[in-house]
Protein 1
Amino acid sequence: MRAIEEKAARAYRERFDHEPEIIASAPGRINLIGEHTDYNGGFVLPCAVGRRVAVAMSGGGGELYSTNFDETRPMRSEKDSSWADYPRGVVWAIGEAGYGIGGFRAAFAGDVPLAAGLSSSAAIEAATALALDTLFGLDTDRKDLAVLCQRAENEFVGVGTGIMDQYASLLCEEGAALLVDCRSLEAETVPLDLKKAGLALLVCDTQVERGLSDTGYNDRRAACERAAEALGVEYLRDAREEDLKLLSSEELRRARHIVSENSRVLEAVEALRAEDYRELGRLMYASHASMRDDFEISTPELDAFVELAEESGALGARLTGAGFGGCAIALLPAGGADALARETHARFAERGFEEPTFYEFVPAAGAEIARRTGGGST
Ligand code: GLA
């Protein structure tokens, strides 16, 4: 078992005085390319990261314990704007989908940084959903579990995100990225062997916190919907480049990002399949420029990292996730990550930015059951 899974199991034992029946975990993610395209019915290319949320769980009772917050909250309760709303939301969504599940207790432990744009919320939802699915023998398809988790986030927690993060957390495979068509919900694994290519992917957390309930995300979503309506299409996914001339001002800029970003995702997949990492890198820089200039979701910190990456010879770099803070990624020759991290520290200090932190990225496995004892509860 992974250390984080052991930690959840230990916390469960200490708290509840018996062995948990199920131990599951689910990862956070980065997105290689395809930002804000998911709720426009478009394409995304995320990868699971090596940081996860683990849950230890058994049937009976009704307490939720978090090692990160060192507190217990009741499972059955109104929303209270805490971490417990994510597992509660999953239980609510399972009920809405027509499944009956009994009471349970659970202990959570996670090392996905919070509010950094690496999808800690999708990780807690996915870990909970997979553990409950196993504990109560629901036998739900991973894709359906992801849709349940998105529903929990949209309708219970109340954050209007797309499907990318939940899909990534539940469906990614080790050593690969995941191409998702967010309209058909078809997903396809795309091998990503950076080591073989002699490359590394550095994740820079700018330490500028972002929350998805921030108005920025909702504003972008609303502008995309207005643009789609003006063009008479259900989703901007269906708009073509030549349609853009029918739009102006904010709607034009937002739609131009979505239309060009969707093409870039498909080109990036082709580049990956051809092991053409220069082309992948070029697309990443182009994606960042589009998010900075047209979608306007970058920050001075994210731009500074991407500029430095380019100066230091990285193949590509871009902000990843919703933007407005959080993380950026750079694709660079293996062995170049430390130097770029050092230079970023220095440049951020010079410019009076928060001290950034860095993660080494390896395309990790999606949600997994780490251990299961006994049969399913009812
Ligand atoms: C957040 C949302 C996703 C997606 C990204 C932007 O991570 O949860 O659904 O919209 O932002 O690509």
Note: The radius of gyration is 21 Å.
Protein 2
Amino acid sequence: MTAGTGDIEKAADVLRAGGLVALPTETVYGLGANAEDPAAVARVFQVKGRPPSHPLIVHIAGAEHLGDWAEDVPETARLLAERFWPGPLTLVLRRGRRVPLEATGGLETVAVRVPDHPVALALLSAFGGGVAAPSANRFGSVSPTTANHVRAELGDAVDFVLDGGSCGVGVESTIVDATGDVPSILRPGGVTREDLEAVLGHPLAVPATSAVRVPGQHPSHYAPRARVVLVEPGKVVAEAELAQELGHQVGVFLPPSFAGAQVKAHAVVAVPGSMDAYARGLYGFLRELDQRGCDLIIASLPVEEGLGLAIANRLRRAAGPRLSE
Ligand code: TXA
Ligand code: MG
């Protein structure tokens, strides 16, 4: 059930009193606190189990408030804000006077965005300030895309949950570092690289997303309880059946090319052919396979164009550190 006006007022009061509100956005649900209240912000880190050096995104009601939260905003950042806000784009800028260091993990930069969700925007207007909010999940695990995901994962640790239905985008915002002369993508997300490049008129650097990692340096993120193993799309069925035969409870992300195939595995998710639908469903699929008792998830990466770039990034990070490809 979607939050009404009374719920919005109540949630704004909870924020004013230093409490935590889970709020829907178009990407994922956030765990929000008054960005200007260091004690409330500290509780966000505590509830998430997140290291305090890991900065939060400050959510604001509109680009017209940007000057309160960021300083020396470059023209390119203004252009991106004008084009993509409200929307799944986060801009990293120089920290403004209203942002305490607690919210930025001690950094002199701040991540800011205007979410494109009527409930989030209503809350931000009613509250009147900035809401510091990471995704409303425990550190390292799968982000929530429904209010029930939040309740199941955080329970009483949240003072109020605003229900805004299922998130329409399903993966987090794209984070762009706009502090320097040339913007760069820090995290692929809901606004595609292609859309950003079309507005900027030049190619953008994207962080390396190779699956080859030094063990221990990259703890897995966006990760379900089940181990995620990535294989070539053509090998998904064979690898899944082999692992099932070896005694695993295998969950399969069945690529569209195998649609309708009978797979001898514990649970099968049919991956949507449209990247919009895949992004929207991704975190729900991971949660579902956990719930169905899978200990291993076999998946492949989509083509890394459009939203496929963010989906592949999340799957790689869910698969976590590995010694070799
Ligand atoms: O879609 C989203 O972005 C969601 C919704 C709730 O808005 N939020 C979200 O927050 O994904 P979180 O905390 O789960 O991820 C935010 C990322 C973190 O990886 C953090 O390191 C990065 O943003 N970040 C925040 N401030 C930063 C800064 N000043 N410089 C570089 N990275 C920053
Ligand atoms: Mg997160």
Note: Residues 25, 27-28, 30, 54-57, 88, 90, 92, 104, 107, 109-111, 115, 133-135, 172-173, 175, 186 surround threonylcarbamoyladenylate (ligand 1) (CB under 6 Å).
